[in-house]
Amino acid sequence: QVQLVESGGGLVQAGDSLRLSCAASGRTFSRYIMGWFRQTPGKEREFVASINWSGSNTVYGDSVKGRFTISRDNAKNTVYLQMNSLKPEDTAVYYCAADPSLTISRREREYSYWGQGTQVTVSS
Predict the structure, then answer these.
(1) Looking at the DSSP assignment, which residues form a beta bridge with residue 82?
(2) What mean pLDDT, rounded, does the chain reach?
(3) What pLDDT score was predicted for residue 102?
(4) Order of strands across the sheet with 18-24?
(5) Dist CA 7 CA 80 (whole Å)
(6) Do the bridges between strand 78-83 and strand 68-73 make them parallel or antiparallel, or are there none, so unpaired?
(7) Mind listing the pLDDT tens digit for each residue in 80-120?
(8) Would you give the distance in Å from CA 97 to the centre of its chain?
């Protein structure tokens, strides 16, 4: 099984940038698709971004296109989410997810493993 630990969240002002990290255990990490989701209290978990095992294929949620970038460093067993031009609407708990799938997915239920989440707060 894969263990995921997110880090890098914090409090920033609108327009600032943050980079989230997700450290994964296991030597099979490079064979997993990885995803980022976010959730605010009382709302459904929202898809943010996903990346395939090689990093050659990515997909983004509409609300973050052009601002966020997902990437991975398989040598470090880590996936990243670079968040630029942050808005107050981006405030949420951000979750890292993984699954031994061949194709990336926007769907929460298709990911088998989840991290504990990291809080991102964007003030206006």
Answers:
(1) 19, 69
(2) 94
(3) 85
(4) 4-7, 18-24, 78-83, 68-73
(5) 10
(6) antiparallel
(7) 999 999 999 999 999 999 999 888 999 999 999 999 999 99
(8) 7
* Number of residues that this document lists for the chain: 124
16 SS3 class:
coil
Place of tokens 């920033």: 12
The residue behind tokens 């990515």 is 58
User: Residue type at 124?
Assistant: S
- Can you give the pLDDT at residue 29? 65
Residues contacting residue 30 through CB under 8 Å, at least 6 positions apart: 53, 74
pLDDT above 70 coverage of the chain, percent: 97
How many Cβ atoms sit within 10 Å of the Cβ of residue 27? 7
User: Which has the closest alpha carbon to 24: 93, 86, 112, 105?
Assistant: 112
